């Protein structure tokens, strides 16, 4: 994606899907800045929680989908 200069085209789509904790800050020209849906593996949740302002205050429109084995998806 680096060097693709597709950021504006990506942001112009109806739905922008991101995976885990992939960054967009600093790469907007290539990957855009919008997040409609972010699919997060249970193993990446701690990484998101370490940087809450970046992931959770960036946009109110982002829907987070956490996935993984049921035994790993507890409230802790």
TrEMBL record:
Source species of the chain: Tyrannus savana (Fork-tailed flycatcher)
Lineage, top ranks: Eukaryota, Metazoa, Chordata, Craniata, Vertebrata
Gene Ontology MF term list: alpha-N-acetylgalactosaminide alpha-2,6-sialyltransferase activity
GO biological process: ganglioside biosynthetic process; oligosaccharide metabolic process
Membrane topology: Single-pass type II membrane protein
Keywords of this entry: Disulfide bond, Glycoprotein, Glycosyltransferase, Golgi apparatus, Lipid metabolism, Membrane, Sialic acid, Signal-anchor, Transferase, Transmembrane, Transmembrane helix
Record localization: Golgi apparatus membrane
Catalytic activity line of the entry: a ganglioside GM1b (d18:1(4E)) + CMP-N-acetyl-beta-neuraminate = a ganglioside GD1alpha (d18:1(4E)) + CMP + H(+)
Membership in a protein family: Belongs to the glycosyltransferase 29 family.
GO CC entries: Golgi membrane
Protein's name in the database: SIA7D sialyltransferase
Superkingdom in the source lineage: Eukaryota
InterPro entries from the UniProt entry: Glyco_trans_29, GT29-like_sf
UniProt keyword annotation of Membrane present: yes
């Amino acid at each position: 994606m680096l060097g693709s200069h597709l950021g504006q085209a990506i942001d112009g789509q109806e739905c922008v899907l991101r995976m885990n904790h992939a960054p967009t800050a600093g790469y907007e020209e290539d990957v855009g800045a919008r997040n409609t849906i972010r699919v997060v593996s249970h193993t990446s949740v701690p990484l998101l929680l370490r940087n809450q302002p970046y992931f959770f205050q960036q946009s109110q429109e982002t829907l987070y989908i956490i996935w993984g084995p049921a035994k790993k998806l507890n409230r802790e």
